[in-house]
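Two folds, back to back.
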Amino acid sequence: MSYTFDRATQPDAVQQHFDLFLQHTTEGVWDWVDLDAQEQWWSPRFYELLGYCDQEIESSLDTFERLLHSEDAVQTMLGLRSALENTSRFEHNFRLRVKGGLYRWFRGQAQVLRDSSGQAVRLTGSLADIHERILLQTELEGKRLQAFRARELQQSFLAMMSHEIRTPLSAILGFAEILSDSSEDAETISAANTIHTNGQYLLDTFNDFVD
């Protein structure tokens, strides 16, 4: 049985503003008036976000738990209990099974109302569809991870190339200098200088590429 939100005690102006708010808000509104009971009140927009007509399914804590994705159920319900017992605010992302069987991501928020002794007596909140945003964030995170892995591969490749190219080039340059300094043969000195010049050019080109 669905719980009917009783606004009879509210002034007509307040009720009119509340009804107007419900008509224009993109979020679903829910109200858990009696925390000792399972019944809750869900606004028509709340039902619409789940793919149902107003009051097509029972609005209750049991229904909410049944609609929760199995991977989100434990943390969501723990967050709800923690809000009632320790804080005054509930904020959580979770997946709910909508009409047709598919799951969509939602953002649930609620404010805990307490009596003078600090005891939770009521919970009123909203439900927002964040499915597309979550999918986009997941896609961006996947691309960020791919970019990070690509950068790691690039750095690993450059480190390997640096060792494999700089080490033999440094040896070639060193031996060319030794040969040029120790030889008295003009042709040998010229050849050594040519080797050193071209080797240095190749090393400079590689360093520019790495940089």
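---
second:
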Amino acid sequence: GKYWQLFVNGKAAETGASFITLNPGDRVQWIYSGYGEEPQETSTVEVIGADSLGRPEVWAAEAPFTVDRGTTADAVIEQALKAAGLVHTSSTTQYGYYLEDIPSLDGRKLGYDAQTGKYWQLFVDGKASDVGASSVNLREGTKIVLCYSAFGETLDNLDAKQVATLRVIGSSENGGAETWLST
């Protein structure tokens, strides 16, 4: 029951391709799927925290997540945090999604800090978002970055990519996985 379906701007075409007039900026996709199946979108998520000295540190490397069309950034952020094993406190309020804190490996809880002005800032496609994560509709290729930074900071002025982490996992006596050296 699958065939190559034409989607224009995320919606299944109701006519053949030769009868569709495209406008500048239209997104055309041919997706091998069954009738009525909605296209999925692949976005990436990266989490940049802070080390014990306050320097940017990658806590979850950029990873792809495939979600249904129309999914918002808060849903993929939750998936990414869970996949990375980052325990966190978040909620959805009348104002939308709120990421309160993510504990670091050394036990600090990184949340809003009144002294430094740092909080979990949302960047979408390299730019600070002017709306909350629950208002960001994902599209194919959207890059989400959660960065513990102060308002006005940009990803360009952070050197998080230069900080490396290492965790050594070996076998325990009973053959299971065991952390030999923490991150």
